[in-house]
Amino acid sequence: MSEVDALKAEIKKLSAKAMQAKMDLHDLSEELPVNWQSILDVAQRAHDAFALLEARRTALKTLEAA
After folding, report:
1. What span, in angstroms and rounded, lies between the C-alpha atoms of 4 and 57?
2. Do the Cβ atoms of 25 and 42 come closer than 8 Å?
3. What rounded mean pLDDT belongs to the chain?
4. How many alpha carbons lie under 13 Å from residue 6 in its C-beta half-sphere?
């Protein structure tokens, strides 16, 4: 498997994790004020998931442009 293919596979998995984090944050927001104590944890997980996804997408673009 080439480096590009491996990165694409990783991005696919990261995208699924990011979407799940987004849904967790959405679900939490609909249940407020129940579980308000977990807002920061859930938001941080979503932030981290999307930050990593964006970094890998940028790396893929760089790799493909080379």
Report:
1. 11
2. yes
3. 97
4. 4
